[in-house]
Design goal:
The structure is a single chain. This protein is of the alpha+beta class. The chain has two domains: about 100 residues, Carboxypeptidase-like, regulatory domain (Immunoglobulin-like); about 120 residues, no CATH class. It contains ten helices and seven strands. The strands form two sheets. Strands 3-2-5-6 form a four-stranded antiparallel β-sheet, with no helix packed on it. InterPro entries: CarboxyPept-like_regulatory (IPR008969).
């Protein structure tokens, strides 16, 4: 009789365990970090494939069974895996979880003294590539009608750039090429302002405004382009002094 009672007790206890294990419960919880509640934390029940996120107070609710695993993720925080226990199912207290900052291990990096890595340094190109300005690229893409390569003409693989044809007819090609010329002229003017201002102030006695006026006066002249390209500052000094006299005479 005694053994029968013990068997019944164990059976009922086992059945109770099974019922609890098979009964889903809504788990209420709260996610915080070192300072405050976290909003937008992603909580996933891996077994039940349920999802939810925390509200402005860091609170959440999600369905779970005994033994289910919750995966808690948040940007910049370490991921938490939390297995639902019997205590979690029976308690009235919310599940409180604290997230820690994710530690990112930075490997030692050696900074090279020559960090310039390009197609030429890697051996992909045997020649130095041509660096074009924005308007120079426009000239190449918007005004060119036929391919410039001789090989394409020889093998007959000729493709016509219809945009170049239209721009040539409408006169847009001429305007684009003029933009490139203006870019080159401005380079000359800026070079004079940046590199010759000291000479023009001390020797020619010009103000900053007069230096700018002189720079714009000579920037379209090809001889100034050539001298600046050669970086012949001595010759440039004589040419600027003469150009200032000319500018003064024209102003009379």
């Amino acid at each position: 009789m005694k053994n029968s009672k013990q068997f019944i007790f164990l059976f009922l206890l086992f059945v109770g365990e099974m019922l609890i294990a098979q009964e889903s419960v809504i788990i209420n919880g709260k996610i915080i970090d070192e300072k405050q509640p976290l909003q937008g934390v992603h909580i996933q029940n891996l077994e039940r494939n349920r999802f939810t996120i925390t509200d402005t107070e860091g609170k959440f609710s999600i369905e779970a069974f005994l033994g289910n695993t919750l995966k808690i993720t948040y940007v910049g925080k370490e991921t938490i895996y939390r297995v639902i226990t019997r205590f979690d199912l029976e308690t009235d207290q919310p599940l409180l979880l604290k997230m820690k900052d994710e530690l990112i291990k930075i490997e030692e990096v050696e900074v090279s003294k020559n960090p310039d890595i390009n197609a030429q340094s890697l051996g992909i190109l045997q020649h130095k590539p041509i660096e074009r300005t924005y308007n120079e690229k426009r000239v190449y893409s918007e005004t060119r009608i036929l391919p410039s390569g001789l090989w394409s003409l020889l093998v007959g693989a000729v493709s016509v750039n219809f945009e170049g044809v239209i721009n040539a007819i409408t006169g847009k090609s001429k305007k684009i090429k003029q933009l490139v010329a203006n870019d080159e002229n401005m380079k000359v003017a800026n070079y004079i302002i940046e590199n010759m201002s000291t000479f023009l102030r001390k020797t020619v006695r010009l103000t900053d405004e007069e230096i700018e006026k002189l720079s714009y006066f000579v920037m379209e002249r090809t001889q100034f382009h050539d001298v600046i390209k050669a970086k012949n500052h001595k010759m440039l000094e004589f040419m600027l002094a003469d150009a200032w006299v000319e500018l003064q005479q024209n102003a009379k």
